Amino acid sequence: MALFDLLNVSYSYPNGRVALESISLSVYEGEALGIIGPNGAGKSTLLLIMSLLISPTSGEIYFKGESFREIMRDESKIYDFRRRVQLVFQDPDVQLFSSTVRRDVEFGPMHLKSGKDLENSVLNALRLMGIEHLADRHPYELSGGEKRRAAIASVLSIDPEVILMDEPTADLDINGRDSLMRLIKMMKGNKTFVIASQDAEFILRTVDRVILLNKKVIFSGNPEEALQIIRGENLASLYGLLPQK
């Protein structure tokens, strides 16, 4: 079942610069979809549009068959959508604003749960990201990788159906990347992931399907086919993602 359907979605900045041009794609329930592209390809813009934070210049988007235009007319539908669909921002400082990591991780679910249920949601999210020992630390005392883990935990604690991730491996070391890859593989099926990144190796090892994006959809298919294209004579240098072999 398609959770998202995007039909000819375009976005231009107020200065006229085009970020996305005629994007048509679907995201299916339970899959992990990877979006690979260079800087300026429109990856972050696409995730902001899919998370209902900005509106496309043109085109239509549907979530579970209902248009974004209809959802935006009803406050209760907006609330329900944002409960189901969560975005891990590229900059973790956007999501870390409380006095401790624990308070940041409990901020989302505290509006949905209380008591033991809330405590369990917070502890489980901290455990999944391996940061239980950082719970009482101030976010600004953390390293870049620790902030990244805390930001992801703040989304996991809400238990959304769909998790959109913008450059989730930035600042993570090898162990952190491998842990996140295992977590996504474990959770997909029960949850749907859309992961945008320049980290081609991580994407190709983690997801079920890959989109190559450069303002337009260049390719959509399985990771093996995407790898062949990236390593192709022209696209490898265009994307700057993997060395040619």
The largest pleated sheet is described as: 6 strands, mixed
Strand order of the largest sheet: 6-7-8-3-9-10
Gyration radius from CA atoms, angstroms: 18 Å
Order of helices and strands: EEEHEEHHEHHHEHEHEEHH
The structure class reads alpha/beta
- The tally of strands reads 10
3D structure, described in words:
The chain is α/β, with parallel strands linked by helices and about 240 residues long. It is built from ten helices and ten strands. The strands form two sheets. It has a six-stranded mixed sheet, with helices on both faces. A four-stranded antiparallel sheet has the order 2-1-4-5. The radius of gyration is 18 Å and the shape is globular. About 40% of the residues are buried.
Concise structural overview:
The chain has 245 residues and is α/β, with parallel strands linked by helices. It contains 10 helices and 10 strands.
Write a concise keyword list for the protein shown above.
six-stranded mixed β-sheet; four-stranded antiparallel β-sheet; 10 helices; 245 residues; alpha/beta
Question: Can you lay out the helices and strands and say which pair or pack?
Answer:
Layout: E1 2-12, E2 18-28, E3 32-36, H1 43-50, E4 58-63, E5 66-67, H2 68-72, H3 75-84, E6 85-88, H4 101-107, H5 115-128, H6 144-156, E7 162-166, H7 174-187, E8 192-197, H8 200-206, E9 209-214, E10 216-221, H9 223-230, H10 235-239
Parallel strand pairs: 3-8, 3-9, 6-7, 7-8
Antiparallel strand pairs: 1-2, 1-4, 4-5, 9-10
Helix pairs in contact: 4-6, 5-6
